[in-house]
Design goal:
Elements (H helix, E strand, L loop, with lengths): L1 E5 L6 H10 L3 E5 L10 H6 L7 E4 L2 E4 L1 H11 L12 H25 L11 H25 L10 H11 L12 H11 L2 H10 L5
Parallel strand pairs: 1-2
Antiparallel strand pairs: 1-3, 3-4
Bound molecules: glutathione.
Length: 209
């Protein structure tokens, strides 16, 4: 039994999707950002960063969405969220997860949390720079998918596509949403058609893409 501390539509989404794909029993605990519950001392004991996700694995709190995706894929090989260990596909899978996490997710953090850069709000210059960085990733990933898609690993879906689609979703209110790139749009449509995506929307009460 896993316990996922989550907030709807946030970085916990990829972990929740992975749990649904796996079909493992889990319990959901909502961390209410409206009441700043992520900074409650009890929650900080589980996750000192005051962020979601946190996943209790055998009672032990583990954080970092990309790491949790990898851990869950490894613990449940039958769910095929990752290619077989030692295969070329597995190497590419690690590469994409780390790339998306430290390039895209890290930049998004600055986009959504100016405070991380010590500012109440971004200046137009900083905002434009972060937007450029995010769009440069869309351009690169779209080119890869157009040449070798439809999924990050080619013909086969993997957990890396869950991470990518979650990150794409976060751009929906940006000046140039990721869905403007055709191969990205195609991948997102494939992932959004999955039962796990639909179930997550129901469970987390999400409506908009
Ligand atoms: N690197 C972390 C980032 C987690 C993160 O920044 N989560 C956000 C939601 S997307 C959060 O909890 N924000 C609440 C806050 O910072 O107060 C991960 O991928 O798990």
């Amino acid at each position: 039994m896993y316990t996922l501390y989550y907030s709807p539509g946030t970085a916990s989404m990829v972990v929740h999707l992975a749990l649904l794909e796996i079909g493992a029993p889990y319990q959901l605990k909502r961390v209410d950002f409206a009441t700043d519950a992520q900074h409650d001392p009890k929650y900080l004991e589980l996750n000192a960063h005051g962020t979601v996700p946190t996943l209790l694995i055998d009672g032990k709190p583990i954080t970092e969405s990309a790491a949790l995706l990898i851990i869950l894929a490894e613990r449940h090989p039958d769910a095929h969220l990752a290619p077989a260990p030692g295969s070329a596909g597995r190497d590419a899978w690690h590469q994409w997860i780390v790339y998306l996490s430290n390039t895209l997710a890290a930049t998004y953090r600055f986009w959504f949390y100016p405070n991380d850069l010590g500012a109440a709000e971004h200046t137009p210059e900083v905002r434009a720079a972060l937007q450029r960085k995010i769009e440069s990733v869309w351009k690169r990933v779209d080119a890869h998918l157009a040449a070798e898609g439809p999924y990050l690993l080619g013909p086969d879906f993997s957990g890396a596509d869950l991470l990518l689609t979650m990150l794409m979703r976060w751009s929906r209110k940006m000046p140039h949403p990721a869905t403007e790139w055709p191969a990205l749009m195609k991948l997102a449509n494939l992932v959004r058609a999955r039962a796990s995506w639909k179930k997550l929307y129901e469970l987390e009460g999400l409506t908009e893409w």
